[in-house]
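Researcher: I'm preparing a figure for a lab meeting and need a structural model of a single chain. I don't have an experimental structure, so a prediction will have to do for now. The sequence is pasted below. Please return the structure as tokens so I can convert it later.
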Amino acid sequence: MEEWIGGLWHKYITRKASENFVDAEVSFAEVNKSVGVVYRALGGESVKRIEAASARDYIVRRSLLQKIAGENKQLSLAWQDDESLRLPEKLAVFPDKSLNRDLYIWLAVLAAHQQGKFNHWAIDNQQLVVDVLTKYPALKPRYQKLAQAFINHRPDCSKRPIAEQQMEQAIICAIKEPGSVSDFPTVNYAPQAVYLWLYPSAHTDALVEPDYQENESEETENSNSVAKSNASRKKAERVDNPNEKDGMMIFRLESMFSWSEFSKLDRGVDDSDDDEDNTRVAEDLDNITLSKQHEQKSARIKIDLDLPSASEDDIPLADGIKLPEWDYKIQRLVADRCLLFPMLPRDSTPQKLPFKLQKTANLIRAQFEQLQSIRYWLKTQPQGEELDLAAWLDFHVESQISPTKEKGLYQSFRGNNRDISSLLLADFSMSTDAYLDDNNRVIDVVKDSMMLFGEALNAVGDNFAMYGFSSVKRSNIRFTVLKNFTERYDDNIRGRLQAIRPGFYTRMGAAIRQATKILTEQKSTQKLLLILTDGKPNDIDHYEGRFGVEDTKQAITEALKLGIKPFCLTIDQEAADYLPYLFGSNGYTVIHKPSQLPVRLPQLYYQLTHQ
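Model: Understood. Here is the structure written out token by token.
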């Protein structure tokens, strides 16, 4: 009963204290696709993520009701940094839902034109609005509608100190006539949130930034090991670890703590900690407090134990191959930054095609054998087996009008000449060890796909090769040779395919560069690079996030310049967030049912090469 009454009181007091129009609320999830289209269409950086912004501290003068309800201490505002554009999780600023939706679009337009950091928040925002309205005059009616609604619903400031009243008046003038106000008074509290403007990025304490080092002995956690959360990003703060030499865990019975409270105790680290449970707890926190622990070197040996011993590892074929890598921050290739090792699967023995694939393989072979037997007429030839009636009729009509030089009037019967080299590059990262159902893992589907791909191309007689890749930092990129262009597709190759196993991480840029180098050595007029993956580029040394995406984009651009056609197949359902930037809108396809991949891969190849 007490909890029920408390719940009713909480709902009542928070609703009374809120200045938002809850009935007209629009969430970021409702408009994120539209916002993304507008932002990128108007020149925003294609690689930036567009996501909801978590609430941040905002020191504003609050009413008595807001103090009682604990409201208005944190606000979700619009801002951006080098990695992403963050927009409010929800907008209920106006009583009209369409206006709140338009406000999201307006913020995306502003963000697409923001250059650099703010020097003076209010003056720079005014100039940004002026620039946008000058460039796009058609937006003026929409802006004026938003501005008028914004002014109409500003809270009354007549009882506040003179300086705050002057600040409020200056903001209203700046909203009405952007660029007209150059002097803003100094106040002790921030003004009420100006949702029509962007805010400076939420700066992170330098101590919170990860301490990246080139030292190979320093290991970091793989961020992909934790299930991806749909929640917005959290604010983090770094604190000193008070008991860094004392590993004893203490339970304080005299007081109880909520999730959001922090007690400076050394938390024991257990290898069996549940990552999913940790993620759930993190989503409940407003601030995430971190302390840097200095462990003994022996405590970090477990990272290296993930690598198999030499006797159990795949067989290296040569010394490491040095490859460059693109650093987007300095906008240039860094020479000899990566080390790639060609390898053969260990314990592979000649194997027949698995029984479960034989029926499907026979159907695919029959389809592809038709490509080999296709013959066609080559029109308008100077000589040939038969007269080209269409060419002769055109020549006859033209000669009646004016003197016309005789053109090719014959047609010749030709066989199909498929001058193409294809390379299939498969991602063998550790995520392929995940189960799709009770019996099959992702890696099992990849094996079946590659085997049916081999059967299809062997039937048509096309020149092809197959490789796999995974990585552990830039100094250990594993490039698995399954079939090179000079080898015949036989039971030895089938055995290699059945011996593949999940690897480590996905340093895609280096693998694409090596595949490009192999393809350029082929004499074919057409060259196709098929990339099979289940996720975005990542590794554990700087390659996470934008760095990996930009390096992969650069590697694909290099391949295109050399006349190679890259195409990506993925089972990642979130691929639409990054693959259009990497491969273009027509350079990839998403397989929504991974179990269909073995059949879809040969079909896709047929579509790409059957002109």
